[in-house]
Every structure is written in structure tokens, then in C-alpha cells.
Write a structure and sequence with these properties.
With 315 residues, the chain is of the alpha+beta class. The protein has 14 helices and 15 strands.
């Protein structure tokens, strides 16, 4: 289930235009990079900070950026916990008086990638920055997208990668195309108005809700058949496929795996990774059973927003 991970946009006040002019952008960012989004992206995704998570990134390297982005998101999902306490803290407020900067409610701040790895927790901005840093170490160009919701002041920050189109890497597998991502938030009662795309600390693009909805793959029967065939190929490396199960075997069992919301978030670009993940889940369950299964047959179907995998085993 997706958590409602909100990005607090700091409130910036200046007493006058003249006082604000006394503080340069560099001086301002040096003082408030933990609280201002653009300043935070420049600092936390600097060469020095990105290098601090290089060893971890190398352990997640895939054959290409598509493969690597899945690996990164999988690691984050398994190892980083959502910091519910931090999320409940009030948003910081930045006050500028000449060259003096005062931050009210400073407890809620952006973490560096290394800090998030060490703490093993964070909120949306921390996740997004960590994912971006890991991808940068792998030679993949990440983007950050700040989503704004209709009727709300708080937004949401997520990492993304541009392949044949943008895919959102939002803390949990799988990567989502923009249209599926839009619909996912809509189901949770939040309507995305716009998305602002950043490359590090620079805004490089803007997405409207209409543009997001244009990129929305609908899972088809042919998608399901292709996915099932790829899963079968993965399992054949371990067991034989036998459509006659359970006839002719001394022991028989069924395994059912439900992948919540995966039917709505399925994208053909990542089909091989979907298949690898499903096959891995099946084999891990087989290992836990402590049985030497010799044969299998497998079916995959869509049930509402979910993908349901049913495996029959025999020996």
C-alpha cells in the first residue's frame, strides 16, 4: 500500500526587497540547504555527497539503466523505512532579515543520501534524493519530480528516470509510467495538478495532469500471456513444466502470490524485471517449503488492480 508521503514546501518570508537583496543566492543556499528544495538538490546531489553512496550503488548495478533503476528501487523498498514521526513535524519556515536567515521548525529537513542509508529511514524527499544519488553513481541520469495536488499546499517529491518515457521511482516497486502514477494517487483521493521536473537543482520541465494521463499503459491479455511465458522460462531452469499436474505425482501443492496494484502499474518496458521478480518469489517460497519439487505449472491473471500468480507443484 502506498503511503501518503508529503513534501513540505518551506514558507519563505522577506521583510523587504531591499533586505532580500543583501543576501546572495549562494549565501542563502549555504544557510538553508536543508530546508529549501532547490538548494537541497544542489547540495545533496553534489559530486562529494553522491560519492558517499558509490559502493552501495555498485552492488545494485544492472546490465543497463532500466535494470539498475529496478534494482535501486527494490533495495530502497526493502531497506528504507518511512519515518512517520518526521512526517508529522510542522513544515519549516524561512525568515530572511538582511544577511540573517532564521529557520523556524528546523526539525524537519532534507537528508543527504548517506544519512538516509545510515538512518535507514526518511520521508519522500529523502527517498527521492537517495534514489537519484544511486542512479548517478551508475551513470544513469535521474530526475526529481515535485507533484502538486489540487486543493493542497503540501506536495510530493519523487525520483524518475527517462527511458522511452518518464518512469516514476517512488520508494516501492514497480516503476510506474506517468499515467498509472496519476491514477494511483487519484484512487487515494488526491488529484495531481502539475509536476515540476528537476535535474539536480534546476527545473527543466513541467507536466500538466493532461500530459501525464497520455502515458498510461493498460495491462492487456497479451501482456499477461507474455509475462506468464517469461516466468515459465525462468522456472524451467529449476524444474520441468508439466500441464498434467497433479496426475502421476505422489505429492501436490498450490502456491498463490498476490502482487497488490501491479496490474495497474505494469509497464512493458519492465516486463523482464516483473518476470524475474515473480520467479524469484516463487523459488523462495519453494525453498521455505523444504520439499524437492520436480514439476510445476503456472498461471497469471488480473484481479481488479492486482496481479495474481497461481503455481501448482508436484513431486
Amino acid at each position: 500500500m502506498r503511503r501518503l508521503l508529503l513534501l513540505a514546501v518551506p514558507l519563505l518570508f522577506s521583510l523587504s526587497c531591499c533586505l532580500l537583496a543583501e543576501l546572495s543566492r549562494e549565501e542563502y543556499c549555504e544557510k538553508v540547504w536543508r530546508y529549501d528544495l532547490e538548494c537541497a538538490l544542489n547540495y545533496t546531489l553534489s559530486e562529494e555527497e553522491v560519492a558517499k553512496v558509490r559502493e552501495l550503488a555498485e552492488s545494485l548495478r544492472g546490465k543497463d539503466c532500466l535494470d539498475s533503476s529496478w534494482n535501486v528501487l527494490e533495495w530502497v523498498e526493502k531497506n528504507i523505512e518511512y519515518d512517520s514521526w518526521k512526517a508529522l513535524l510542522p513544515s519549516p519556515t524561512i525568515l530572511i532579515r538582511g544577511k540573517e536567515v532564521i529557520v523556524q521548525n528546523p526539525e524537519r529537513f532534507y537528508q543527504t543520501p548517506y544519512e538516509t542509508v545510515k538512518l535507514r529511514k526518511g520521508i519522500c524527499g529523502d527517498y527521492a534524493i537517495l534514489i537519484a544519488a544511486l542512479l548517478m553513481n551508475l551513470g544513469c541520469e535521474p530526475f526529481l519530480i515535485r507533484f502538486e495536488f489540487e486543493g493542497e499546499n503540501a506536495g510530493h517529491l519523487s525520483a524518475a528516470i527517462l527511458l522511452d518515457q518518464y518512469y516514476v521511482l517512488d520508494q516501492n516497486l514497480p516503476p510506474a509510467d506517468l499515467g498509472s502514477y496519476y491514477r494511483k494517487w487519484l484512487k487515494e483521493g488526491k488529484r495531481i495538478n502539475e509536476g515540476y521536473i528537476y535535474s539536480r537543482g534546476i527545473q527543466v520541465g513541467k507536466l500538466t495532469a493532461e500530459e501525464m494521463r497520455e502515458f498510461d499503459h493498460e495491462l492487456s491479455e497479451s501482456d499477461i500471456r507474455a509475462l506468464r511465458d517469461m516466468v515459465r522460462n525462468e522456472l524451467r531452469q529449476r524444474m520441468k513444466e508439466d500441464p498434467s499436474i497433479p496426475v502421476g505425482y505422489i505429492e501436490y501443492a498450490k502456491l498463490k502470490i498476490t502482487l497488490q496494484n501491479y496490474a495497474e502499474l505494469y509497464t512493458p518496458a519492465f516486463s523482464e524485471k516483473f518476470a524475474e521478480m515473480i520467479a524469484k518469489d516463487i523459488l523462495e517460497n519453494l525453498k521455505k517449503s523444504e520439499r524437492d519439487w520436480k514439476a510445476f505449472k503456472v498461471e497469471i491473471e488480473r484481479k481488479a488492480a492486482d496481479l495474481v500468480v497461481e503455481v501448482e507443484l508436484a513431486r
